[in-house]
Amino acid sequence: MPVDYPTVSPLSCGFLSPPAWKFVADAKNEEKLTMPSMAFLIQHPASKSNVVFDLSIRKDLTKYHPELQKHIATRDPISSERDVKSALALGHLDTSEVDYVIMSHVHWDHVGTPSDFPNATFIAGPNTNKLLRNEMGPDLFNPYFEPDLLPADRTIETPPTPNSGSSEVFDAKHGWHWQNVALIPSAIDMFNDGTVYIVNSPGHVPGHLNVLVRIAGDRWVYLAADACHHARILKGEVDFGTWKDKNGRTVTIHHDLDAAYSTLNIMRRLQENGLDGVPVEVILAHDGAWEKENAKFFFPNHL
């Protein structure tokens, strides 16, 4: 009996233009990267579930903290005219029909407007709520985090991952637990059928998640969010950008650099070798070239 695989539809959302040196090591001082902040719709036919991965940029920028708006202004040119809600409307899908929202992480250009999704269960990575409450120490303190960003009664925060092997079931309703998936140390089989995995992908910030979806018998796609910000880094052509922080330390866009390299290495190996012999395409949330080359696959179409 043929398998009815999930579909993945990129969503046409906003874009921003940060300094290039924040991301790639060989950037020129005044260079900017104009990059999308892509979100994705995953439709799982067996359960008839609509899953959104990431919420891109908030449509109304004035809804961000006033001081954060000053930071956002340094990312010009920026556009928030198109958001996840408007992107879904292109395919006549209302946000009330979204069953799950998976948050890769809680930086401003990925959180969108969670209140647009009144019926969705939100899924966040380990320690996300502590991060939002600024309880993760001074190096992770961010005055613009919103402690009430996610609805407390509809949010599942995944527990810390095991040191090795599988964890106990932490959500009985869904049967969710951390498990190994080939070379991926910790993933959750979202629908318990081997087609959609929530992937622990540490490095960028605590709780960072990726998603792996089997969209055909001979094809996986790996949605990488901010595990890597530029295709040249993924290809090994350039390293992460670095700079000095206020304490004189050399830092990168990733809080835990060793973990970021480990996650990056897994992504490279998946792209190069596939998963159990099945090809894997790694898609970066901010890859403008990929967005242009694949415009025909955006919702209401799919990859």
From TrEMBL:
GO terms for molecular function: hydrolase activity; metal ion binding. Keywords: Hydrolase, Metal-binding, Zinc. Coiled coil: none annotated. Residues 36-286 form the Metallo-beta-lactamase domain. CDD domains: metallo-hydrolase-like_MBL-fold. Its cofactor is Zn(2+). The keyword Zinc applies. It comes from the Eukaryota. InterPro entries: MBL_superfamily_lactonases, Metallo-B-lactamas, RibonucZ/Hydroxyglut_hydro. Belongs to the metallo-beta-lactamase superfamily. PANTHER family: 102 KBASES UNSTABLE REGION: FROM 1 TO 119443, QUORUM-QUENCHING LACTONASE YTNP-RELATED-RELATED. This is Mycophenolic acid synthesis fusion DE. It comes from Hyphodiscus hymeniophilus. The lineage of its organism: Eukaryota, Fungi, Dikarya, Ascomycota, Pezizomycotina.
